[in-house]
Amino acid sequence: MQTIYIDILLCVNLIINYLLLSATSFYTHTRIKIKRLLLGSAVGALCSLTILLPVIPFALNMLIKITVGGVTVFSAFGKKRFSEFIRLYAVFLIATFFFCGIVIALWFMFTPKNLLIKNSVVYLSISPVLLIVYSVVCYCAFRIFNSVAGRHKVKDTYCTLTIKNKNNAVRVTAKIDTGNTLKEPFSQCPVIVIGRRTAEDITPVEILEYETVTTLKYRSSINNVRFVPFTSVGGGGILPCFKAESIYIDDLVCDKVIYIALCNDDYIQGDFQAIIPFEIL
What we know:
Helix content is 43%, strand content 22%. It is an alpha+beta fold.
């Protein structure tokens, strides 16, 4: 019977969960605050105490693991749309299985005396230095696998976008698009595209006045209106744009200068209301 030290058990699983959640964040391109990352890691680490229980039947053990994984992901990434939560959860499970595969391979190849797996919980009785080295190796292996498989592409990745302007704010789901290369012509700053009706509450009065006036003579007297030229499969044109006071992506403030371009709401179809360029992440 191997002696299990609670402090080492919690430390091992805290680091493992930290790296698994970091890999999930990297893979899905979902921003996560450090404090939420630590919270999720701590929740997963506390659940590792099931190693102290008698051997749990396989079905019950899987049910516990599924529940613990969901609670861990929720603690780390917070409240998300159901589809987004399922995506994060699935990636977390894939990362977990990948890590467990490496651990089991080490077990069968070398049968280390200081490695114990019970109730699907890993316990390593090793020095903190070796613990960090082994964990980083597993994390790097996941990153390499990610790159080789080409799964780092973000064509269908979504995030939560919050735009604040003139004491008003809109909060929408945005698609991260590597094909969005729009720039504000004068400053060459990146541009977020959003529907007119969606952004109505934060749209400056100057743009509203410009779009409601039909006579070019009066339009020329309206200042502070900028335009972004665009081309698409269906043609091209110009979009009015403005600089928002503050922008948050997944509740993290974006400190870059970004312009908001308004388009017809019919141009944006799907489970999102805005399109943001990948470069601002």
